[in-house]
Amino acid sequence: MRKLMIAAVATFAVAGLAACGESAADKAAEQQADSIEAQGEMQADALERQADAATTDAQEDALNAQADRVEENADRAADRVEQQAGNADGGMTTANTPTTN
Question: Where is region (Disordered) located (predicted)?
Fold first, then answer.
């Protein structure tokens, strides 16, 4: 009986550790999200450089606002990718999944 209980506890412990691990889909989604964020940052940086070279304050403000929107949209897209990957594995890793509000 004691051996059976030890085996059962060991089985649950291993299952618990497996559930905590990051799945391949999660890792791929994280890499994709990082890429989306990096691309958004690069585009925003380019717009900000254009804003620095703008000849009027209105142009500078408009380009900076556009840079902000590009970066925010990239962040939202990255969050959606991570959330979809978290939901694709049956909810096992959604505890730290960002919301897309």
Answer: 31-101
